[in-house]
From TrEMBL:
<feature type="domain" description="Proliferating cell nuclear antigen PCNA C-terminal">
    <location>
        <begin position="154"/>
        <end position="280"/>
    </location>
</feature>
<dbReference type="GO" id="GO:0045739">
    <property type="term" value="P:positive regulation of DNA repair"/>
</dbReference>
<comment type="similarity">
    <text>Belongs to the PCNA family.</text>
</comment>
<dbReference type="InterPro" id="IPR022648">
    <property type="entry name" value="Pr_cel_nuc_antig_N"/>
</dbReference>
<dbReference type="GO" id="GO:0003677">
    <property type="term" value="F:DNA binding"/>
</dbReference>
<dbReference type="GO" id="GO:0000710">
    <property type="term" value="P:meiotic mismatch repair"/>
</dbReference>
<keyword id="KW-0238">DNA-binding</keyword>
<dbReference type="GO" id="GO:0031509">
    <property type="term" value="P:subtelomeric heterochromatin formation"/>
</dbReference>
<dbReference type="GO" id="GO:0000785">
    <property type="term" value="C:chromatin"/>
</dbReference>
<dbReference type="InterPro" id="IPR022649">
    <property type="entry name" value="Pr_cel_nuc_antig_C"/>
</dbReference>
<dbReference type="GO" id="GO:0005654">
    <property type="term" value="C:nucleoplasm"/>
</dbReference>
<dbReference type="GO" id="GO:0006289">
    <property type="term" value="P:nucleotide-excision repair"/>
</dbReference>
<dbReference type="GO" id="GO:0042802">
    <property type="term" value="F:identical protein binding"/>
</dbReference>
<dbReference type="Pfam" id="PF00705">
    <property type="entry name" value="PCNA_N"/>
</dbReference>
<protein>
    <recommendedName>
        <fullName>DNA sliding clamp PCNA</fullName>
    </recommendedName>
</protein>
<dbReference type="GO" id="GO:0070914">
    <property type="term" value="P:UV-damage excision repair"/>
</dbReference>
<dbReference type="GO" id="GO:0006272">
    <property type="term" value="P:leading strand elongation"/>
</dbReference>
Length: 285
């Protein structure tokens, strides 16, 4: 009888005391990329320009906007929601990330790995899951998030006087070559073409591209839309930095107008990376 009474007492105690069960918390964000290489290339393109930034997640996708420390250049990035499959977002969330740390984690993924980003409500970490179907391997990492108080700048819609579409590899080569001679480059757009020129202590150089259409390989074409001639001078250090985004697209578009920042855009099927650079004023060539 005593044994039976002990069992009854124990059962009564269990009914009175609540049992703490583990909570199954579903992520507020779950975004799956078919190729991890896309995010790796995006981060590589901007990590030397900005160190800490917010990834703003909303219905449009995952966006980023940040200025460099000198406030001379601005980067704007968007990975559209339709580029993810699936893209599930319960509410808008900002993920404060150190790009150097993110780069280290992304190096653990192969370009062909499937990448899934996950974040919980009021997140303090970002989860990255890499899946490799060939090796049947799943790798899971977490990166600590930061509380970044970052002002979101409104980028005004601008009607540019000149828009130049050209091979990104060609733009990269021009910037790299002229950077051997000078710290600055003058970009002149006219109906004759676009001219990149510089002058430094050891000499001067220039490269002129005329408009041409490559029917067999459109990505090698140079197209110029012009409403009026434009001539502006920019820092080559920044342009060389922007060219790290060449891996994202075979084509780059340069948009210029007098007295407004240069827009350098690399468009991807799933979004874009745009760089804005203030012109140099009052410098002699």
């Amino acid at each position: 009888m005593l044994h039976k009474q002990l069992i009854l007492d124990a059962c009564s105690y269990l009914l009175l005391v609540p049992i703490k069960l583990p909570l199954l918390i579903s992520p507020v964000l779950e975004a799956r990329l078919e190729q991890a290489g896309v995010l790796k290339k995006v981060v590589d393109a901007i990590k030397d320009l900005v160190q800490d930034c917010n990834f703003d997640c909303n219905d449009s996708g995952i966006a980023l906007q940040a200025m460099d420390n000198s406030h001379v250049a601005l980067v704007s990035m968007l990975l559209k929601s339709e580029g993810f499959s699936p893209y599930r977002l319960d509410r808008n969330v900002a993920l404060g990330v150190n790009l150097t740390s993110l780069t280290k984690v992304l190096r653990c993924a192969q370009n062909e790995d499937i990448l899934t980003l996950k974040a919980e409500d009021a997140p303090d970490t970002l989860s990255l899951v890499f899946e490799n179907a060939e090796n049947d391997r799943i790798s899971e990492y977490e990166i600590k998030l930061m509380d970044i108080d970052q002002e979101h700048l409104g980028i005004p819609e601008t009607e540019y006087a000149a828009a130049i579409s050209m091979p990104s590899a060609e733009f990269q080569r021009i910037c790299r070559d002229l950077n051997q001679l000078s710290e600055s480059v003058a970009i002149e757009a006219s109906k004759e073409g676009v001219k990149f020129s510089c002058s430094g202590d050891i000499g001067s150089g220039s490269v002129t591209l005329r408009q041409h259409n490559n029917v067999d390989r459109p990505e090698l074409s140079t197209k110029i839309e012009l409403t009026e001639p434009v001539a502006l001078t920019f820092s080559l250090k920044y342009l060389v930095n922007f060219c790290k985004a060449s891996a994202l697209s075979s084509v780059v578009t340069l948009s210029l107008s007098n007295e407004v920042p240069l827009l350098v855009e690399y468009a991807m099927g799933s979004g874009f990376v745009r760089f804005y650079l203030a012109p140099k004023i009052g410098e002699e060539e």
